[in-house]
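FAQ: What does the model actually see?

It sees only this:
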Amino acid sequence: MRICHLLISFGMLLFASAPLAGQPQSSTPKEQDMAISTNFGAKAGFTAALSLLNDFSIGGVPIEQVQNDYKVGYFASIFMRINFGRHFLQPEVSYNVNQCGVNFNKPQDQDMVIGSQTSSTAYIESKIHSIDIPVIYGYNFIKTGPYAMSVFGGPKIRYIWRHKSKVTFRNFDVEDLHESLRPLNVSFTLGVAVAISRIFFDFRYDIGLLNMSEGVTYTPTPEETDEYAVSYRRRDNVLSFSLGIFF
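And it is asked to produce this:
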């Protein structure tokens, strides 16, 4: 009988400690870390663009040395962040105005006197308006209380607004040079971000992957033929810094 009483008592203890059917269970720390949440945000900041010119030539003469002139641009964007633990996926839409320029010494005219030290510098200045759609994957390697630090990367599709964009050729030997830009381009984004509660700082570098120039054209006179023809392949890399807020 004593054994029966012990078994009954043990069964009642298990019944009392068992959760009721349909009652919500408390999640473990690991389950909480993998919980999926979504939030939105906006940011704005400044850019510095770098034009990389490959196979650059004028009249068939290669241009070997090109100096980049950095100019400040700006942008604004909105985004959605899907959080799952320390990881996140973040699609964005941004409007960008990137400015950059290059200068170089033009090829010397063969009719110039040998030994002359005179050289002439030409400039290519760009102001490019674009709508960018990056999709980045990130990881918070620090996530404690209101503080977080993350690294991220991902592809970016860039649509160049050609009617607003402008490329200016200065001090060239012809006046009607015009560069046609490809409307669609692809870049890859790498960056790091620091967040304090709802405020964050975002630092990133975009690497252009494709040639964004369709070509440079002009209308030569019968005497000029192709001696002033400008040719190059162009990629733009962009460094950006922004301040943003989570909603």
